[in-house]
């Protein structure tokens, strides 16, 4: 059994959206999947977004935009508009592996702690 630390790739998303008559906002989480700022998240988090702000574990606040949205699978892609290189580590996970994700986007800060799998 193996473990990979992906804590530094988890981000918080703050979303502003408009339905034409009123503004609404929300929060969610995502995972950086490419060093140029591509973030995988859920469609229900960013659907209809007019503004997206991404906060990294190290506290950087970066503007972003939705570049792909598939409500049928509830998946979406967000591109961070920043020249910074971001830390993807997901390439170390073999294709086809089972993964588990848990998040708390309403937390006041993001915390990353490495954990080892049970023996």
Keywords:
single chain; 119 residues; mainly beta; six-stranded antiparallel barrel; 1 helix
Oligomer: single chain
Structural class: mainly beta
Radius of gyration: 15 Å
Count the DSSP helices. 1
Mean pLDDT: 76
Distance from first to last alpha carbon: 9 Å
The CATH class of the domain at 8-82: Mainly Beta
Low-confidence stretches: 106-119
Main β sheet profile? 6 strands, antiparallel, barrel
Overall geometry: globular
Q: Strands of the biggest beta sheet: in what spatial order? A: 1-2-3-6-5-4
Q: Indicate the percent of residues in helices.
A: under 10%
Element order: H for helix, E for strand: EEEHEEE
CATH architecture of the domain at 8-82: Beta Barrel
What CATH calls the topology of the domain at 8-82 is Thrombin, subunit H
What is the number of E strands? 6
Strand coverage percent? 35-45%
Please give a structural write-up.
- By secondary structure, this protein is mostly beta strands.
- It has a domain at 8-82: Beta Barrel (Thrombin, subunit H), CATH 2.40.10.120.
- The chain has one helix spanning 43-46; strands at residues 10-18, 23-34, 38-41, 49-55, 61-70, 75-80.
- A six-stranded antiparallel β-barrel has the order 1-2-3-6-5-4.
- The radius of gyration is 15 Å and the shape is globular.
- Residues 106-119 have low confidence and may be disordered.
